[in-house]
Fold this sequence. Notes:
The structure holds two protein chains of two kinds.
Chain A: H1 3-7, H2 10-29, E1 39-43, E2 46-53, H3 54-65, H4 69-81, E3 85-87, E4 102-105, H5 120-133, H6 140-152, H7 157-172, H8 176-193, H9 197-227, H10 231-248, H11 255-269, H12 274-277, H13 284-287, H14 291-295, H15 305-310, H16 315-320, H17 322-334, H18 338-351, H19 358-370, H20 382-392, H21 401-421, H22 423-431, H23 456-467, H24 472-482
Antiparallel strand pairs in A: 1-2, 2-4, 3-4
Helix pairs in contact in A: 3-4, 5-6, 5-7, 17-18, 18-19, 18-21
Chain B: H1 2-10, H2 15-35, H3 41-44, E1 55-63, E2 69-74, E3 80-85, E4 89-94, E5 99-105, E6 113-116, E7 122-126, E8 131-136, E9 150-154, E10 159-164, E11 170-175, E12 180-184, E13 190-194, E14 201-206, E15 214-219, E16 224-228, E17 234-238, E18 245-250, E19 256-261, E20 266-270, E21 275-280, E22 289-294, E23 300-305, E24 310-314, E25 320-324, E26 331-336, E27 343-347, E28 351-358
Antiparallel strand pairs in B: 1-28, 2-3, 3-4, 4-5, 6-7, 7-8, 8-9, 10-11, 11-12, 12-13, 14-15, 15-16, 16-17, 18-19, 19-20, 20-21, 22-23, 23-24, 24-25, 26-27, 27-28
Amino acid sequence: MTINTMAKGGWHREQMSCFRKMEKVIVAMQDPDMGMKMRNQRLLITVIPHAMTGRDIIAWLIHTYSICEEEALHLSGLLVRYGYIYPLKEPRSLVLRPDESPYRFQTPYFWTSTRWPASELDYAIYLAKKNIRKQGELMEYEKTRYSLLHKRINHTWDFVVMQAREQLRASKQRRKADRIVFECQEQAYWLINRPPVCLLLLYSLLHFCTILFYIILYCTLLYYTILCNALPYYTTIETCFTVFKQALGRNRVKSSICLESFVKYSEQYQNHDPIMQGSLPSNPWISDDTAYWTMNSETVPIPTRLRVERWSFSFMELLNDDMGRREFMTYLEKEFSAENLCFWQACEDIKHGESSRIIEKVEMIYKNFLAPGAARWVNIDSKTMDKTLEGIRNPHRFIMDDAQMHIYFLMKKDSYPRYLKSDLYKNMLAKAIVPQETKKSVFPFVRRQRHANPSPAQAVAQATEEDGHAKGAGQAGTKSAAGSHV
Amino acid sequence: THQMACQGLQGGETVASLKRESESLRKKLEEERKKLSDIELNQVAEKIEVLGPLSIKTRRVLKGHGNKVLCMDWCKDKRRLVSSSQDGKVIVWDAFTLNKEHGVALPCTWVMACAYAPSGCAVACGGLDNKCSVFPLSLDKNENLSAKKKSVAMHTNYVSGCTFTSSDMQILTSSGDGTCALWDVESGQLLQSFHGHTADVLSLDLAPSETGNTFVSGGCDKKANIWDMRSGQNIQSFESHESDINCVKYYPSGDAFASASDDATCRFYDLRADREVAVYQKDSVIFGASTVDFSLSGRLLFAGYNDYTINVWDVLKGTRASILFGHENRVSRVRVSPDGTALCSASWDNTLRVSWAAYL
């Protein structure tokens, strides 16, 4: 739902689907077998049938939907707010009290969804009835509205008064209990749909939207009847065809394989998820101690064990961590294949860098990595190399994609697994820290001072100054390329 | 285009027959998808332990916006965040200390999208002005951030979502004009546009995949589409929601994504199986969901709803793990911090809340 669709009647659509869901709950509550137990309630000297207490409503919701009391209060509050249940004792207080306060179900005749929108004429008749019944029973805000209506629909006022009298006469012929019930239902309906001034803001929007809805609906119908051309349907359907045909040709994987991978992933990362397993030494948001962040920062001398373990989960995890990437580079240097990682980084820089520097960067890559006799020549298969060299003549952002992917998979399949078996990695893992859990403070109410730290913008600005070069943008480029998806 | 329509119709086709053919293709696709659906997610998850009760505590309440907060995004430093609101204000906070570090007043209202740059040196935001602008974060307190504003994206309708790609140099936007677009920040040039949605696009998310070239979008046409950033092609499409999709978010491995919709459900789609594999719903959850995000391991899904609550779902078992109250109006955005230590929720009650959650 957006502000755009609100005007097109989208708000109405959204509300209607919520109403339907609430109605489902209401129907379940009135189920003869599994629904609520009703009782008769005494209201002054009259007995109101089929009423229930707030306490019973909460208990039923807790039991039926397996929810906690707070949620049951929240849900029942919604049912009252939208007029599906109304209070008998204090009709203007649209809240659900979890005590002996009596409530009744609103009859479907008076559901907001059934009688959308609440008609002005009906409201006028209702107020007229109240006025006639006991002179001066209207509340202040009702009196104001009554006189406003009188001015606005003056031409049908005879009809309004006649209808009001007729309805009052008919109701006198009912049993007193039925009459009171109907009056309660009607009053509840109008409290929802024409609330007192303080809620007016909320429901004036409702009113405004219904007017707008009808205007837009009229215009839309006009558009379709007059113009009724096939074009909108045609282009939409054509796009659908392309997508469907593509989808039909797709290779799918069996669910048993795919879904198993989610179980494995969540298990593997469970220890690394602060919500699932906590964080050592402590979660900064609870303890106000930033040690957890300091220990896991990019430039820490000795990393934590969890962090080093994570490098073994996937090649992407290793590359996404600046420290991991540096370690891997060190390893590759020992193996005399560091140019692969350098090449990959340079390609990333083109893909995600400024459009204006693409040509310059492509030239650099050619000179350093691809040209015959280049200082850091990378070993790409001849087919990819030919294609890349051909493409360099008209360099664009994705020109290095094939070559980059080739080198990436080379590192992933070959160098990465060997790195994980290497002494370099094993030593790193051995000396990695496992932080001690911080003992909870003896005085839990004493709050630590929360220290500020330099903004990343500040850190980069300082580095730029220290370097003396205007390389800030370039550094930010590589830094950000490294520090991507965590 | 009118000519095209006439040509199409001249071929003996009618709108009705095209629609029939489209329907039969759709049915065929459903059948194909079913063939490989040999098991359901909650069945696979039966062997996992049931989660116990989740403790959630609100640890920070960020007050300062004068109107509905519509969007927020975490900084990579795990403690700063940027938020935008209906009155045009964009604020950068150090959520840990509650300090407001930067503030910009945009000339438009309803700033529905904001994003923090990966380097932490800039923020992007956009909304009813149909644009997305990038502001470098100046450290000089006296400097007016608005002066350094760089207008990057230009749509023909409101901007509903924006994100930087893996560098500060490119942004991806979604718009009420039904398209998404990729832009070069420095020049403001349109690099690629993505057409295929037939109504407003409300949300997008970048894939955390190795080859890093796809993203997902969801919109008012009830569809979630996967796009190839390089070619602009719609490579996969899912349509199972019954109402507008308000938010889409990738599962951390990149093999799936979740969506939140006005139909009061959140759904989980597997990209390799090419189908919806879970629906997160409950009869007592009546109002639409506007936002979703995963916990770090992907086991939990946090969803914000229009009835002011946040429901926490067990992604694998499909059950509801917890419910969080506290906001006094719609929850417009929930985001887990980059290291998974906290959850931030932005709301129409003018506040943002940072909450801690744990299984004790």
